[in-house]
Amino acid sequence: MSTDQIERPDALPVRVPLVQVETGLLKSWQMMRENVLSIIPEVATREKIVSGRTGKRWHMIMDPATIRHVLLDRLEDYPKSDVTKNLLRPAIGESLFIAEGAHWRWQRRTAAPAFSHRNVLGLAPVMTAAAERSASRIAQAGPRAVNLLDEMITTTFDVIAEVTFSGDGSFDREAVHRAIEAYIDEAGKISLLDVLGVPDWVPRPGRVMSLQAMSGMKEAADAAIEARARQGPGTLPDLLDLLLAGEDPKSGRRMDTGELRDNLLTFIVAGHETTALTLAWSLYLCAFDQGVQERAREEAQQVLPGRAATGEDVVRLPYLRQIVEEALRLYPPAGIVSRTAQKADVLCDTDVRPGDTVMIPIYALGRHRALWRDPDSFDPDRFEDRKAIDRYAYLPFGDGPRICIGASFALQEAVIILATLLSRFRFTPVRGRDPKPVMIITLRPQGGVWLQAEEL
Ligand code: HEM
Q1: 290 near 425, Cβ under 8 Å?
Q2: Reading across the β-sheet that carries 357-360, which strands appear in turn?
């Protein structure tokens, strides 16, 4: 089938139904219960700023220049919000993701070399092997529909576990995976209460249980780190080896076992589900638009005659990368990032007071009427010319000094896995089983992404 024979679909891919309120004052708690994304009012896709009060005063900003002001120019005045920190601290301590000021800066300087282009490329064989295993599992499932969300969660966990604690037989991957999933699940329920402005002393269900699972996991991680420190690096250095060897170029300080553990767990928590979601949504979109899928397959099959994709192939798969970028625009795994204002400020002619929550609704930004043509449609071609896209209008990885440290790792992984799968299977939707986008910390397709995978 050639690309121009295939009709583009008339319908749009699934969307989150945004709340229709014109005033920007949201009073109802009910609508937020089911779907945190529904706190994003529809006006956020048209205005530059929307403000409200639900327990706390908050502002959502959708103006690229103002977002730059918050994330880049005034970093110190807009630290990450307490909501984010309270939620994640029990799992990942004062790691890179949570820390502020000097404690954040030295950790970022120490970890940055591990994510250099050279080192990320060096980790690619792990991604290629995981893509190969995923293709075998999908092939084994035969003609039945497959839940590609679950499959991608397995695959990306495979990658992150291998690049953090590779070859450590003592490290129980399954137990770690279960503990993290349980925590994210519980934390998702907590976050609803926190976003709504419920005071800290209100007991949160499930916190105790997931903390127990977490502490077992931390002990296992500590033991693996200490064993590696004694044994020295393996032949293919992984992220643990790179962090063990890392030191702050300014102070010479190195991470101790607790700091190494918190950061490695951060990479697992921040890196695996987000990348799995990116892949699951990319596959959903390719099944939605067979024309795009066919074009992607032609590219993949040309570059990979009968083998899985490697790190070196990624630059030769530009259309695959555009699909991943477009999936991240339509379904950004981190749907909202939030900050707490430290000083009085004026954002888009609106007064901001110390203590106000300032949110960047990445989901609404990617679908903003003033920033994108046909914002709700799936069109990977819009990423052909990256220079034409305002940097602060497209923020799946955030921006400024706190931009995602794993962005190129994630993009490389997503392209390797997607190219390998599309070169071997044709994915088609299962009638009546469209995923429903729901935000529980991350933007997930509720019910999974069920697709028919026909082996080619
Ligand atoms: C598609 C996949 C991913 C997405 C969409 C994503 C998204 C993000 C976003 C939006 C932020 C900024 C949060 C904020 O400013 O409040 C962030 C930060 C971060 N991400 Fe990612 N991420 C992804 C993959 C990864 C991977 C693979 C890793 C590690 C292996 C990782 C590690 C981190 C860390 C450590 C931070 C905190 C950086 C700092 O504050 O200095 N992420 N990510």
Answers
A1: no
A2: 49-54, 56-61, 357-360, 337-340
Residue 400 Cβ inside 6 Å of ligand 1? The answer reads: no
Number of domains in the chain: 1
* CATH code at position 254: 1.10.630.10
> Is 279 touching ligand 1 by the criterion CB < 6 Å?
no
Q: Whose CA is nearest to atom 35 of ligand 1?
A: 97
Residue 91 forms part of a structural domain: yes
Which tens digit of pLDDT belongs to each residue from 16-52? 777 665 444 444 444 544 445 556 778 889 999 988 8
Do strands 357-360 and 56-61 pair parallel, antiparallel, or not at all (unpaired)?
parallel
Predicted confidence at residue 24, as pLDDT, reads 41
For ligand 1, atom 25, name the residue with the nearest CA.
Answer: 271
Cα–Cα distance between 87 and 249 in angstroms, integer?
Answer: 31
Residue 186 pLDDT: 61
Pull the structure tokens for residue 323: 């699909």
How many angstroms is it from 405 CA to the middle of ligand 1?
Answer: 6
Does ligand 1 come within 6 angstroms of the Cβ of 339? no
Q: What is the mean pLDDT of the chain?
A: 85
Residue 338 Cβ inside 6 Å of ligand 1? The answer reads: no
6 found inside a domain: no
329 Cβ inside 6 Å of ligand 1: no
Q: How far is the CA of 261 from the centre of ligand 1 (A)?
A: 17
- Residue 42 to residues 16, 30, 275, 422, Cα–Cα distance (Å): 10, 17, 27, 35
Q: Is residue 334 part of a domain?
A: yes
Q: How far is the CA of 413 from the centre of ligand 1 (A)?
A: 14
Residue nearest ligand 1's atom 37 by CA: 97
Q: DSSP alpha helices (H): ranges in 202-317?
A: 207-231, 239-245, 257-288, 290-303
Element containing residue 425 per DSSP (H, E): strand 425-429
Give the pLDDT of residue 276: 94
Distance from C-alpha of 258 to C-alpha of 415, rounded to nearest angstrom? 33
Per residue in 149-175, pLDDT tens?
Answer: 999 999 998 898 888 877 556 566 677
- Model confidence at 64, pLDDT cuts 50, 70, 90, reads very high
> Residues 53, 47: contact at Cβ < 8 Å?
no
Domain that holds residue 180: 36-455
Q: Is 334 in the pocket of ligand 1 (CB under 6 A)?
A: yes
